[in-house]
Amino acid sequence: MLLFEAGTEGCIQEEVEIEKWEHPDQLWNMEIPSGFVAIGEEKIREDFPYDDPPEIVLYSEKEEAWITMQVFDKELKREETEEAGEAVRKLMDDTYPQHEMTPVYCFDEGEIPIAWFAMIMEERKEEHVKGVFALQNPSPRLALLTFTYPKEEKDKWRAVLCAMLSTIEEGTKET
Prior knowledge:
There is one protein chain. The chain is α+β, with helices and mostly antiparallel strands. About 20% of the residues lie in helices and about 35% in strands. It is built from 3 helices and 12 strands, in the order ββββαββαβββββαβ. The chain has helices spanning about 40-45, 80-95, 155-165; strands at about 1-5, 15-20, 30-35, 35-40, 55-60, 65-70, 100, 105, 115-120, 125-135, 140-150, 170. Strands 4, 5, 6, 7, 8, 9, 10 and 11 form an 8-stranded antiparallel beta sheet that branches. The chain has a 4-stranded antiparallel beta sheet with strand order 1-2-3-12. The chain is globular. The termini are far apart.
């Protein structure tokens, strides 16, 4: 599906096409920008050198934007999503007080409600969005999606982010 089409009257965005992506363990699926590719475990450890790196990292072709995904062994019910988003935001604010944080916003235009906020990293000229949501299948668990992109392109990437969030669906994984 074409999200932005270059050359459309009044459109200043470059063309962005999105395609379906499925979690390798079939926990969920969503649409992401075309051209984002998964990196291997070695590159994940290199780019995220801490104890609990993301399970999945997808980089754009030019590596100017990336998406990370993790599922935690922490129970989370859908009605607790906003509270969980606030808790993650507080943790990030306490850990990175030098970065500006937006309030937590609730996105409920898709199948799964998502609490998200942005962390603006001025020194890196990046905006880093964290989305928290609850997966119910095979059991209620907290899932975290992050999307990092150049701050000067936030209008483009926030529109892409909203399109992505609206397409997140439970996968087919059964217990």
